[in-house]
Write a structure and sequence with these properties.
Number of helices: 8
Shape: globular
Distance between the termini: 24 Å
CATH class of the largest domain: Alpha Beta
Helix content: 25-40%
Strand content: 25-35%
CATH architecture of the largest domain: Alpha-beta prism
Radius of gyration: 19 Å
Strand order of the largest sheet: 1-2-4-3
Number of strands: 16
CATH superfamily of the largest domain: RNA 3'-terminal phosphate cyclase domain
CATH topology of the largest domain: UDP-n-acetylglucosamine1-carboxyvinyl-transferase, Chain
Number of domains: 2
Length: 332
């Protein structure tokens, strides 16, 4: 049984550990889960991920309780089919889907997960980022996945619903070392219907478009007003070079829509002025697929999340090399 120090990272370390265990059919013990956090142990969102992968793999699990700081996860084979999971809070659906995505490499028939929770919440990528940035990137190296959104969910009530569909996939080596020229720019602005009178979605998109056009970047705007249990708003800017990259901001009570848009625009323009290939949010998630498929990825920076992911993957026996900001693994 492979033992992992969960105190070295947060929820992403747990999600990656579970995904690897499921794909490899390898039992793991994760101790001191989120030990460095103010509220250590399993929260509802993490627990939902454990329960979901346990169902998909018919795993023997110990310690899967809220607040638990240690779990043992002994999976069987990944089983295709249709699954449903309710996080029970406004916990991020996109982070739950992150746990499931690698399973596309271990199935012989389609697998789908319908999840209920938060689609656009703090400390996680909004669902528009997942759909328009992450999935196109992973599809570019052979992972067959798509997502559909039935209902948005904002903090605190959640209640959003989305479905991730996976098909059996054989990955090709990653090639993310050159960015290429900017081809398109898109602004996805969404607001709950209680914010319609204030035209929050329109103002988010208009501010982003105005500032980006001033910088010489033409933008295609996509605005939507949705029904949800809680009021909320989100903006996702997608810049497509050879691969898409994304920059996001969430609406906050008392903060003008224009100020929210400025946060996303500032991040997008700062990225555009550099020579980075992928955005910082995606970088640490791509190293998992790099371990599975081989290839190379140029990282925008070596964050703590990236360092933690690399340590974890090396602990599983993957030989990952780093040189001049590029992480590579020889193809299997």
């Amino acid at each position: 049984m492979h033992t992992i120090d969960g105190g070295a990272g947060g929820g992403q370390l747990l999600r990656t550990s579970l995904a690897l265990a499921a794909c490899r059919g390898e039992a793991i013990r994760v101790r001191d889960i989120r030990g460095s956090r103010d509220s250590p142990g399993l929260r509802p969102q993490h627990l939902a991920g454990v329960r979901l992968l346990a169902e998909i793999t018919d795993a023997d699990v110990r310690g899967a309780e809220q607040g638990s700081t240690e779990i043992r996860f002994d999976p069987g084979a990944v089983r295709s089919g249709d699954y449903e999971i309710d996080i029970g809070t406004a916990g991020a659906i996109t982070l739950l889907f992150d746990t499931v995505l690698p399973l596309a490499t271990a199935i012989d028939e389609p697998l789908s997960v319908t999840a209920t929770g938060g689609t656009d919440v703090r400390w996680s990528p909004p669902i528009d980022y997942f759909e328009h940035v992450k999935l196109p990137v992973v599809r570019s190296f052979g992972l067959e996945a798509s997502v559909s959104v039935e209902r948005r969910g904002f903090y605190p009530a959640g209640g959003g619903t989305a479905t991730l569909e996976l098909r059996p996939s054989e990955l090709s080596p990653l090639a993310c070392t050159e960015r290429g020229p900017l081809k398109t720019a898109d602004a996805y602005a969404v607001a709950e219907q209680r914010l319609a009178d204030a035209d929050v979605a329109g103002r988010l998109a208009a501010r982003a478009s105005e500032r980006l056009r001033e910088a010489g970047i033409e933008v295609q705007s996509h605005e939507s007003v949705v029904d949800a249990r809680s009021a909320g708003a989100a903006l996702t800017l997608v810049f497509t070079y050879d691969h898409p990259v994304g920059f996001t901001a969430l609406g906050e009570k008392g903060v003008p829509a224009e100020a929210v848009a400025d946060d996303a625009v500032d991040a997008a323009l700062a990225f555009h002025e550099r020579d980075a290939v992928v955005d910082a949010h995606l970088a640490d998630q791509l190293v998992l697929f790099l371990a599975l498929a081989g290839g190379e990825v140029r990282l925008p920076e070596r964050t703590d999340h990236v360092a933690t992911s690399l340590r974890l993957l090396r602990g599983f026996g993957y030989e990952l090399e780093e040189e001049d900001g590029v992480v590579r693994r020889e193809s299997a």
